[in-house]
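Extended Data, panel c. Modelled sequence:
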Amino acid sequence: MRINNDIAIEVTNLTKSFGDFVAVDSINFQVKKGEIFGFLGPNGAGKSTTIRMLCGVLKPTSGTGKVAGFDIKTQPEKIKRCIGYMSQKFSLYEDLTVEENIDFFGGIYGLDKEKRKERQKYVIEMAGLTGREKSLVNELSGGWKQRLALGCAIIHNPEILFLDEPTSGVDPISRRNFWDLIYQVADNGSTVLVTTHYMDEAEHCDRLCLIYRGKIIALGTPYELKGLHYGDLLEIECDPLMEGLEVLEKLDIVQDVALFGATLHVTVDDAQNIIPIIENHLTNENIKIIRIDKIDPSLEDIFVSLIELKEKEKP
């Protein structure tokens, strides 16, 4: 079992304000050692601000946090020695070669020459960059840069690894391959906290924290979070789609309706009894029904419904 019960990261009422704007609003969570912990939310939700506080580069306005047992307010330098960090911008030096970047980051993390050589070999093999050691970084594709950036972030074999939107801007195949590397890092003993707004990636995490407008709105395993969906979920394909959406929004029997690609996701109390009523309303409005299926909710369904609930709570 990769995860144990020891705590790698602990956050209590952590808050960060910029003037009147509250970017992170009194959040609480724990990350266990060896865990892949996902921080999920839209852009501007407070994910990156939280990571910057945990890495010791941004002081919180209030609240407390511990990373690897060190206080984020009073011991930031100790935290920086035992963590790795990778951002969506990758933080690589474009005019240096692959091996020069690895050597540079090894020096930054305080590795001696012999250890740097040993870890350089590991990083190149792990990232699949054998034969590209002399290539300039600016000659690499986004996927290769991503792998190299991860390798540089873990060259010192950190206890805890922070990945801030690490797959943003790369193709789906590179994203999938990158997650294989994340599993490898966790299996080697590191705790991983990863922020993302990709719902499919969230499925790969051991636990997830959903954050919206600086507040945590849900926390649990992907399976537990899917259980937060109340009612039955229908997927409806109809033509024209937007007119179908407008019709369903007006029905009292519909709890919620949202556009999902070329379909509508509709939440109702009792699918069996309500599907015929929906069919009747759409047909009466000259909307062609291609199919109506009852489906299991995805994490995206859960996240959308939770956000809408929060919006309705606003005064």
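The domain at 7-222 is CATH 3.40.50.300 (Rossmann fold). This feature is highlighted in the accompanying rendering.
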